[in-house]
Amino acid sequence: MVKFWDPAYQCFTFNQEDMTPTIEEYAALLCIDNVQFYKIYVKEPKPMTFKKKLMRLANMTDTWAEKQIKKKNETSCIPWFSLRDLVLNHPDMLKRVNLFALAIYGLIVFPKIIGYIEVAVVDFFERLKQGINPVLTILVETFRSLSICRRKEEGRFIRCAQLLNVWILSHFWKVERTPFHMFSKIFAPLEADLEKEWPKEVTEQYWVSVFQNLCAEDVT
């Protein structure tokens, strides 16, 4: 999909059709309906240190947090296996669930360093628990990652590829022949995508060909 991203106009161009993900679409795809939409995620001018946030989130000691923090490519982060042990063994069940959710955000939604969760994800996760709308952040990070890959003509898309993929398919329903009713309260597009079996013969070249030949009647 990076091949069809136009960094200058921040949209996808498929043949003659221009499209871009919207805040409303991402919110619907993520089934987010309990956030304060006018309370936007921003970085605090004097944020709490990564170590303090980690201690509070995991309910662990200063010494434990100090040992877990690593530097990878100038980025402060913690290895996944540190959280895995807590997810399996922490005496507080709510902490287990929160740490498991943090791992999903760090490893799948906002992956930067394979096998590690970076400091920015901990900050983002804390804001999410406060009911702050995360969709703008996810959308901006998606645009930034796509643009960097396209401009460099190399690199790896490091934001939520699954979410972007489901957004694409939700519009090209004639290609897939399985329309997504993303704004329906009783339908979860991401869950439906996970349950779907992909044919093994589908290749990158196949999708490039589909995208290059899309016309107005193929897009909903």
Automatic annotation (TrEMBL):
Residues annotated as domain DUF7745: 1-210
Database matches in Pfam families: DUF7745
Keyword rRNA processing: no
Keyword set, alphabetical order: Membrane, Transmembrane, Transmembrane helix
Segments traversing the membrane: 99-119
InterPro entries given in the database record: DUF7745
Stated name of the protein: DUF7745 domain-containing protein
Organism (species): Gossypium anomalum
Lineage of the organism: Eukaryota, Viridiplantae, Streptophyta, Embryophyta, Tracheophyta
